[in-house]
Amino acid sequence: MASVLSSILNPMLPFQMLLKLYSLCVLVVDIIWVYLNTIYAIIGSVYGFFNPPQLKSLDDETALVIGAGRGVGQSIALQLAELGVVVICVDINEKNNRNTVKLIKHKSTSAVHSYTCDITKKDNVVDLSKKIEKEVGFVSMLFYCCGIPSPRSLVTQPPQDIHVTLDLTLTSYFWLIDQYMPQMKAKNHGHIVALTSVAGLSYLKDQMPLSVAQFAVQGLAESLMEDLRVNKVNGVHVTLTHIYPFIVEENSQLRLKISSFFGSITPEKAAASILDSVRRNYPEASIPKHFLYLGHLLRILPRKATVLIRDLLDTGVDFA
């Protein structure tokens, strides 16, 4: 009786009930919409695995390769030039950088430019970007290869100073993105490529500063992707590639715990795999490719399970 009297005395009550019912219906519809699109995305991902997107053309592209003096960075610069890309090689080691330029001129007819720069200093990055804009023009692709340690350095050298590691791996990347991303957004055209070691997926023994920095690079790449999505910039792409450092041979004899599973590849093959992912506009990739799915698996499994898997896959690396 009291509830009836209350409904009569409160004419707003039916309206409030309808409002709650409407909100519930909207929530149910949203949940169904998300569920259906999630299923569609999973199906699309499986289909894309067996039928990958076509390779995009790199004609008329200008690529800035940071860390082009050696290793994977050098191989990326060489293969970009062979694809007809104007290549801008940047490295702190002038001798190595000049050697890369000589190799490019010997193997291709693409235009190539060389700059020596210590990118750990912001003023140097700003000056470099101004000089490149004046002498070369718009940079449509940015490859940042400086934060990838060599296999031997991870084992034989002590960890770097925290500030040095963060400056080289992460802070410098921020400065470069700050210089080139606005132009890419304005033209709605460009590609940012972030390379990380496997430390971006899991901790490496006695290399905590590096692991933290690599995790941060992964967060930076994902933040860039989200920024582009929110601002509806569909012509600029970001590709995050995880490189397992002991996979890439650099004239070293390695003994691996599960050699049949890991194997090894040359910097040239690693660069080819990276460029394949970039030309297909993949948001995330890994070297070797199956490690990407392992990384996804480690993110969803319970902590104890991930520890067991990491112990199993521990490289147990030793130099012969």
From TrEMBL:
GO terms for cellular component: lipid droplet. Pfam families: adh_short. SUPFAM superfamilies: NAD(P)-binding Rossmann-fold domains. GO terms for molecular function: oxidoreductase activity, acting on the CH-OH group of donors, NAD or NADP as acceptor. The chain crosses the membrane at residues 21-50. It comes from the Eukaryota. Keywords: Membrane, Oxidoreductase, Transmembrane, Transmembrane helix. InterPro entries: NAD(P)-bd_dom_sf, SDR_fam. Coiled coil: none annotated. Belongs to the short-chain dehydrogenases/reductases (SDR) family. This is Uncharacterized protein. The lineage of its organism: Eukaryota, Metazoa, Ecdysozoa, Arthropoda, Hexapoda.
